[in-house]
Each structure stands twice: as structure tokens, then as C-alpha cells.
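Standup notes
- HV: blocked on the assembly model, inputs below
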Amino acid sequence: MLLGLMAAAGCGGSGAPGDPFAAARSVPTEDPGRSLAVGRGPSGGTAIVLALELRDAVRVFEEIDGAVQSWGDVSVGVGPRSIARVGDDFVTADTTGATLSRIAVADSGGLAAVTTAPIDPPPFHVAAAGPATFAVVLGTGDAAAVQLWQLPAWPSPPVPLAAPLPLAGATSAIAAPRGILVVRRLAGDVVTLSAGAAGELSIAATTPACDDPRAAAPIAGGDVAVACADRIVFLDGGRAPLPHQGNLYDLVAADLDLDGADDLAAVDLAAHAAAIWTGDAVTPRSYPLSRGPVALRPADLSADGDQDLIVIAFEARALDLLENVLKGESP
Amino acid sequence: MNRVRLLAALSLVALSCGGDGGSADTGPPGPDADRTPDATMAAMVPDPGTAVGGEWTDVEPNDTPENAVPVGTVQFAIWAGFAPPYTTINTPTDVDFYVFRAPPAADLPNLNMQFCWGGGLDLLDLYLYEVVNMLQGALIRTANTTNTSCETIIAPGEGPTYLTGDAVYLLEVRAAPSLPPTTPATMYGA
């Protein structure tokens, strides 16, 4: 059901002339989200799907031509903490309920059809690993492990491909050309996993990163950027670390300035801002956000040919949209 | 014999932790200021540390005041549930203690101390205590509603009523007494 157009308000600050981004617009979400995924919307726009741990649901928004609509909630398993787009579907890690939920576009429009699969120990993070496969970080601490799962033809629920690989301290994962990158916050490293033909995982490399790495982002060309609290480091050392005074929490790589090379965008929990490094910049541009930005994703909102940024502001219970204006849109 | 009884009584006092009985002779005014837990005055608590707005993590064992997790200074809100070990009610009798420093007095009106969770259960109750000379002091406030999604110990605007700027406090997160014994480990966050 279409609930209507959401109010969008600027949340302070604006980009200086020449900046890729206009000041952020804020869309209230009512409930705090920890994780978001972006995909194809029910009406042809961009779907923005939030995992709402407190509601046992995902909340679906759709952006079309600058307007953000809410399609309401879709119930999933108990305690969804993480969500990923896998093919045209979405998958949530339902930690409290120890399930994985698969959300598909319903025939009548909207994201409504759900199937779930049990998983033990409980899942904490999911990340796409291919058109129909995804990695799951399950368990925590010494009991943590990583496992590849697959989405069979709809309406089958997700199925595991092989046994979990024990990996103490695993906290999150992301797919990269070199393999599946697993961030371990307490260990301070990033583990690269290789997948065999049957989906079995093995450790290919363990690379120290920093104290308390928060997120990794593969960069075109092969290196991997890692967000630490106070800097960005590069696993292969191909680029000097980018120091930053703040508390970086999530990181993405995308060509934000349309020069053909990946740039970096992170959310800074201390400054309540997005920090964006374009080109070879050592000092990021800062864009104010609503309070408590914890996650971000790039997306070409309005299909205008540039990468915009969508941010979850956990504390403010809002989605912030940073619109890339290089293609000529007005803020 | 009397000496044995006295020692036994002292032992019970020393072992007692939490509870709702007793009356307060210290602590700021508030609706629960007269609910001092029995004999918790002897529990030495850790220093909260110097972090500002840091992550609250559930480092077990933290089920007694002396094992409270130091979480630094709370800025505007508790920040929990993002970093491992995740804040979790592990069993239907789980107790987690945290020791924190209140923000400066000027920021107290903006303070919001709340935990929320999924699953539709009455998961937990909260107990806020003074800390005096690094000892657990009087119970200041209790949040033990039957709400099935959140429990709030300090709502925005309430900070100046219950807390003193830059002072140290203990927060006890206790599994709700009505929690079914089959309840799975359930994370709480803020």
C-alpha cells in the first residue's frame, strides 16, 4: 500500500560551489534502522529498504524523480539487524529469531513476499556474494563463522551451500574481486576468504588493518579501503592512509565525481556528517547529516547518471539523501 | 553463637546485590529515591574511563557492580548494539552492569537513556544508581514497565532532575522477571 509522499527537509549545511553534493535532505523513518539496502523499486524507481530490528520488519521506501514514497512495512523474522540486496531480492539476518528472510517483489507490486530459513547460530550480517548467493556472518565472538548461502528459484527459502567456516571475531562481510572480505573489529584485521566450487570457504589471507576496523570497501583496481575510527587505510598499501578526526562508521567506494575512478564516502558518527574523499584528496569534504549516521549506500537516484548517497541516521530516525549535482540537478 | 550470627548476617549483606528494599539516605530526589537496594554500599565499581560517546559493549562477566563495564561519558544517548560483544540478555536471569559518567550539566537536558529490542517481549528492566567514592550508592530510578519494545530510564528533559553533571553512575540492566525460561538470547540496543 502506498502510504504517501514523505516530507523531506534539509538537515543543515550545504556544499560549496563545485562540490559534488547538495546539502542532505532528511526523510523521517519513525524507527531506527541499522542497515539498508538499495534495489529496484516497485514502481520503477529506487527501492530503499531498511532493516528495523525493533519492528521485526523491513520498511520499504521508493525514490522517484526526487520524491520519496513509503510502501510501509514487510514482516520478516525476529530482530533483523542486517539486510542485503541479492539479485532482485533482499535478504535479512534476523538475529533474535535465528532466521534468514528472503523478500521478493510481489506480483501486485511492493516488496511483500517473504520466505524464511532457520540458521544456527544466529546470523548477524549478510552481504551479497553473487547474483544469487550471499555470505552470512553467524554467531559472535569465538563462535563466529562465515557461510555462503544461495537463493533458489522463488518461492524457495535460502539454502546453505556448504558448512560454515569458523572465523572467531567475524563481524561483517563484503564481496570483492579477490574474495569475500570479512572485517573483524576486535582482531583489527580483514580476512579474505576464497570460495570453492561447492561454496566451501577457506582463508586466503589475513591482513592487519587497524584498531577496531568498521567496514571495508573494494576499490576498482583491486585495493581495499578500510574505515577505522580515525582514518582510512588501504590493505595493499597502494595509497597512504587518510587520517581523519572523527569516528568513521561505514564506508563505500563509488565514482562520485564522474572521473572514472572510485572515490570514498564514509559516515562520521562524531561529526554527524558524511566525509567524502574525491580524486587524490587527503582531506575530505564534509556534509552535515542528521544525528547518528551509521550506514550509507551509493545509488543513482532519479536515474540521472550520477551516484547519490543514502544514509541511515540511527539516532535521528531518518534517511538522509545526499544528492549528487554533477549532472545538473538542482539541490 | 552471636558472633556466628553476626558474621552470617554480614556475609549476606556483602553478597546481596540489587533488590528493591531499604530506604535511601543519599541520592538526589526522584520518585524512586527511597528504593535503596540492600547493602550494596560496599560494592566497588570501576572507573568509567575517558571515552566520550563511546560504544557500550556487553563484556561478560558484568553481572555485579564491581564488574561493571566502563563506558565513559554518555553524550546525548547510549550507543549500544553496534560493536561486539553485543549488548544481550543472554538468559532469563541475566544481569549487566555498566558504569558511566554523566555529561556536563549544560548537556543533561538533552540526555536520552533508553534501551530497545525486537521480538515483542518484556525483555528487561533498568536500575540507575549513584556512585559515591567509587562505591555503589543509592538507587536513583527504576524503569520496569511491561513495555515490549523499549525501557527508558532517563527521557529527554529528565536529566537535570535525576543526574548531576560529570558525576559517575551505575546502570543495571536486568532481565525482566516475567521472561519465559525458553527465551533465546536477545540483543538490546540504543
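- HV (later): unblocked. The radius of gyration of chain B is 16 Å. Residues 1-40 of chain B have pLDDT under 50 and may be disordered.
- Next: hand off to the docking folks.
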